[in-house]
Amino acid sequence: MVTIKDVAGAAGVSIATVSRALADPDRVAAATRDRVLAAADALGYTPNRAARGLRAGRTNAIGLLVPDLTNPYFAVVARGVSQRARSHGVAVFVADSEEDPAAEVDLLRGLVGQTDGVLLCSPRALIRDTDVLGAHPAVFVNHALDAAPSVALDDVAGAVAALEHLRSLGHRSIAYVAGPTTSWSDARRRDALQAVAERHPELEIHVLGPYPPTVEGGSAAAGVVIASGATAALAFNDTVAVGLMRRVIALGLRVPHDLSVAGFDDTYLTTLVTPALTSVHGDVTEVGRRATDLLLDRIERPDAPGELVLLPSWLVQRDSTAPPLSRLVPAPTTSPAPAEPTPGAP
Hints:
It holds the Pfam family Peripla_BP_3. Residues 322-346 are annotated as: Disordered. The protein has helices spanning 4-11, 15-23, 30-43, 49-56, 72-87, 101-114, 155-168, 184-199, 215-228, 238-250, 284-300, and strands at 61-66, 91-96, 117-121, 138-141, 150-153, 173-177, 204-208, 232-235, 260-264, 278-282, 308-311, 313-316. With 346 residues, it is of the alpha/beta class. The strands form two sheets. A six-stranded parallel sheet has the order 2-1-3-4-5-11, sandwiched between helices. Strands 7-6-8-9-10-12 form a six-stranded mixed sheet, with helices on both faces. It is elongated. The two termini are 43 Å apart.
């Protein structure tokens, strides 16, 4: 293992000079600093960030708060966060609120006390109404809050692409199986769908829900989707779409012959179902990486202005969407949308 002593020997300077060159380079002459950095790079030396953090009063750890770690989307975000944090020698503490806003606030309070900064994925609680964060560095994922840094997929472009795809297939009556009402992404998608419908008066958009962003939520929506007369449905996420497809098929309809179905997030679920699910794709791992970059920068520059980083999204067409066929709609038992267990979603 390469040590700071090895770097000092290779650069021909003292250990103290190496330490200053790496931790506070402005205190070292440029030529000396360059020599130290070149030696460290040649030897593959990585400074002990934990020790440096203790001297600076830092933990060298960040928190990641998610609403549901069993949701494939958040698991992939967590992987991106972990990858980027590991490359910087930073530990990641992951907390799962299990869709509970009250638990989210409690978990956030704990993370604030143990980390240098926090990543909040699709927060369920109304964070702006709490004083939990205070001045603690924070970055939001799939949510924009005031001047705080945020990273999200461009779900507006994704929603438009999905709706235009269904329209191009000949669908004119389309259901949107909505997520929870406080979801930032859901609100943006609704607005985007409405804008497309205004450009194409022949379209009839049925906004149904809200429904929990789960397989069970999609299953609960199936009867309402069928009763709406829609020939296609765009679901809030892939898990909702899978639940919807399974229930629709159980009720005697065929996907996509009787009902086309599309989802969001393009998770691994899309190819585990039959027919394979059309879905809006984005680089979710990159979402986690970029959010981590913003947070590490925020920790170093707490007064830097916030920014919303939108990463591209596009539609991946598979077998669950096709031109509409006339169908005899069965008469399933319908029920109103179930009450949301918690507000908010990606």
